[in-house]
Amino acid sequence: MSTKDKDVLLEMRDIRIDGFSDDRWHEIIKGVDLTLHRGEVMGLIGESGAGKSSFGLAAMGFARPGCKISSGSIKFDGMDLMAARESEKRKLWGTRIAYVAQSAAAAFNPAHRLIEQTVEATVRSKLHDEKEARADARTLYQSLRLPDPEHIGERYPHQVSGGQLQRVMTAMAMSPRPDLIIFDEPTTALDVTTQVEVLAAMRNIVETFHAAAIYITHDLAVVAQMADFIKVLRYGEEVEEAPTRQMLETPKMDYTKSLWSVRELEKPEVKGEDIIIEMRNIDAAYGDVRVLENVNIKVPRGSTVAVVGESGSGKSTSARVITGLLVPSKGEVLFNGEPLPGALKQRNKDQLHRIQMIYQMADTAMNPRQSVEEIIGRPLEFYLGLKGKARENRVIELLEMIELDASYLDRLPGELSGGQKQRICIARALAADPEIIICDEITSALDQIVQEDILKLLLRLQKQFNITYMFITHDIATVKAISDEIVVMFQGKVVEQGLKSEILSPPHPDYTQLLLSSVPEMDPDWLSDLLAARGEAL
Amino acid sequence: MHPIVATILQRLGFGLFTLFVVSVIIFSALELLPGDFGEAVLGQAATEESVAAFREELGLDKPPYIRYFEWIGAVATGDLGTSFSGRAASGVDRSRSVAELVAPRLWNTLFLAGMTAVIAVPLALFLGITTALYRNSIYDRTVNATTLTAISFPEFFVAYLLILFLSSLYPIFPSLANIDDTTPFLERVYRMALPALTLTLVIVAHMMRMTRAAIINLLASPYIEMAQLKGASRSEVILKHALPNAWSPIATVIAFNLAYLVVGVVVVEVVFVYPGIGQLMVDAVTTRDIPVVQACALIFAATYIILNLLADIIGTVTNPRLLHPR
To answer: Which of A240-249, B79-88, B298-307, B311-320 has the lowest mean pLDDT?
Structure first.
């Protein structure tokens, strides 16, 4: 596709952005350029902390509190945004440049109806009067395939689902027919099955109105569906930029290649016979709301069972039942063939230390005022009675197992990176000398490269100590990487359980088929092909 | 039934229950007070027989729980009882009903509280919103420092300063707020200017700072950033996007301060010789006039409960999650 004949909409030159932290200013974007023509979609990818969002917002001439655009030039349709006054920029915002935020649930004002928020900028800038704008918003709702487009706008944000909110936000961005839309990780908070619908709706509407867009994400497969070309950022600098197909087929830089390779990690599966944990006919409820219905899961010793499904499918609740945090209303949990008491309080130390858990948010799973030594030392003392020097030596041993060393003993969680925090949580689980570790979405808050390191570490530990993992995740790439067996859950029931090779190859039950086909692939045609296939199926 | 109505009825029920508990506490606390009305009136020299006879006449010889139920039963039918004062040892009964004693004083107190609220609440909201709008500006700092200074001085000191400046040095307002039923409305307002001003200075800081904090607290929300990125001006962001979500904490702090205006202003009443309910209660405590003390305490408790109920209701109806359930 030639872009030379189209006119330039946005031109950013040598942008530098400073962020304030630890009592001083740091440069978080170090001289990045960008040229975007009318109607073009650019993908901006990189790990968290790479400065993607700050750079994307800079395209609007906006800096978050605690950030400032220190130098560079930003020209939007001939207007110099660096020199523009705040009031001049405000006239562009929400009308000619629109922003779609990551978490729609947080980005909508809870006090106003959806349609009021959808048309707010359009009406303020007098592009349309209130009545016309509302009528147009309802048309947009319809083209975004929202249910009941005539009336959904009268609802409040808490009354619709996350995927619907994200589409309403796209309608909100589209209402004034902007020249440029900035999508800031718009589907990251959604389930894969919802993500597909939202992506299709967004892509369709961007094409229909010939808007230009900057699509910010850390997910390569997603950006491949949306963007004409891709720019990779790392540590605030540009790594490379290329048209989407070229970037996917022949990435030039090592860093870009490493982003690709994560998806290739795959553990050979092993069929386990000796069952360590069995959930037998389990029903469970929170109050009156039944969340598990006749769940049967078998976990063989020394292998990894991945539990997959969208949010609300009962994955985490199953973990809570096994660990004793939630007493099932029916059924029992067998550990090495013996029934376990349902409630945590009735289990003895010997039963407790054999089942350990690692959480999604390492940040909130550790006491921020305890040092690494206290965090890892606590289970050593509580379960194994280690004290003083013996305890310290064991903590150092554990740190070495997770590829850290004694220099971390006195650190507080706040002084560690995201990946290191999750390693400490792994060490804490190992400290109890467990037979099985339940991992609840432990990599989903991490960047892909860090994810890969953590997964490799888990596999090595499994080999070394014959540990069993029950691995809860919604990410199919992670499942392929680590699991022997897979359990698919949907609405509190187990859809199927079996070896990875069986579950991932056809024929599939309907839900598994929907789930698997919704996982974005590194193929720019994936979304179009999928929609075509589903369209035929309908 | 709309869930809001159910919530309000439920809160009302809780309020009544709280009032009941408070009435038990009031009654028990007064039981524990040393001495009684008989001894106080008859003096140290009275014989045991005459004290006993007097107690019997007032019904004080019955066991406490019977007296409690007699009292609360009467209160439930609107009868606050008869004051002890006016009864002499000689048997002459010039006592008046509690309602007759309390009503004019309560009216005066509510009038003063109302007048103060009319000045203080809009002022506090205005200052709170504008300081949030121009936070960290010189205006913000000045308002914060001034209101904090005002709240840091004891009430009587603020009152005397106002008398010194606005009554003695520059005789604008009268220093005494002595009013009665016959005082015409405007004259009333004029005479009450200084006590109302004093109370305004005392309560504005609290309400203003809470308003400011509640709004600023919301400014870090993603939906506020979204509003900015949709081109909303600073005042639009505050008034349209932050304020509607901040009413709940603001209403709570306003309710708290209004309740204080009814129950906590005895010092100001004394300084300005204002015939409010606070003074009545203090007098009744010193003379062991139990029925009056009980009535006042119950009115104070009811004030707190009603105002907090109102704040709860405001918090509920301004929250769409509660107003429009899924």
So the answer is: B79-88
- Nearest residue, CB atoms, A95 vs list B222, B231, B241: B231
Interface test with A, best of B215, B216, B228, B230 (most A CBs within 10 A): B230
The CATH homologous superfamily for domain A40-61+85-264 is: P-loop containing nucleotide triphosphate hydrolases (3.40.50.300)
Range A87-93 average pLDDT: 91
- Residue B221 domain boundaries: 108-286
Report whether A443 contacts A482 (CB < 8 A).
Answer: no
Give the SS3 label for residue A29. strand
pLDDT at A416: 84
Identity of the amino acid at B37: F
For an interface test with A, give the residue of B223, B236, B247 to mutate (most A CBs within 10 A).
Answer: B223
Amino acid present at A60:
M
Query: From the list A103, A111, A172, which residue is nearest B244 (CB)?
Result: A111
pLDDT recorded at residue B91: 58
* Nearest CA distance, A348 vs chain B (angstrom): 42
- The total of structural domains in chain B comes to 2
Long-range contacts for B103-107 (Cβ within 8 Å, ≥24 apart)?
A: B104/B181, B104/B275, B105/B275, B105/B276, B105/B277, B105/B279, B105/B280, B106/B277, B106/B299
What mean pLDDT do residues B62-86 have? 83
Residue type for position A415: E
Q: Is residue B136 part of a domain?
A: yes
- The secondary structure of residue A7, as a DSSP letter, is P
CB within 8 Å: A109 and B225 = no
Residues forming beta bridges with residue A242, ordered by sequence position: A230
Q: Which has the closest alpha carbon to A454: A466, A463, A442? A: A442
Question: Which H or E element spans position A30?
Answer: strand A24-37
Q: How confident is the model at residue A42 (pLDDT cuts 50, 70, 90)?
A: very high
Across the interface, which of B223, B233, B244 has its CB nearest the CB of A108? B223
CA distance A373 to A407: 10
DSSP state of A237: E
CATH of the domain at B221: 1.10.3720.10
Mean pLDDT across A420-444: 91
- Confidence check on the interface: ipTM exceeds 0.85, yes or no: no
CATH class of A275-505: alpha beta
| Measured CA angle at B263 (ends B260, B267), to 5 deg | 90
Q: What residue in A sits closest to B230 (Cα-Cα)?
A: A94
- The CA-atom distances, in angstroms, between A303 and each of A427, A484, B155 are 19, 6, 73
Which of B226, B317, B323, B324 best tests the A interface by mutation, with the highest count of A CBs <10 A? B226
In a domain, B89, yes or no: yes
Residue of B nearest to A156 (CA): B320
Report the largest interatomic distance among the alpha carbons of chain B, rounded to a whole angstrom: 85
The Cα A440–Cα A309 span in angstroms is 12
Residues B40 and B119 in one domain: no
pLDDT tens-place string over residues B122-139? 999 999 999 998 988 999
Q: Which long-range contacts (CB under 8 A, 24 or more apart) does A72-76 make?
A: A72/A12, A72/A13, A72/A14, A72/A15, A72/A16, A72/A31, A73/A11, A73/A12, A73/A13, A73/A14, A74/A10, A74/A11, A74/A12, A74/A15, A75/A10, A75/A11, A75/A12, A76/A9, A76/A10, A76/A180
| Spatial distance between the Cα atoms of B85 and B286, rounded to a whole number of angstroms | 11
**Pairwise CA distance, residues A273 & B318, whole Å:** 59
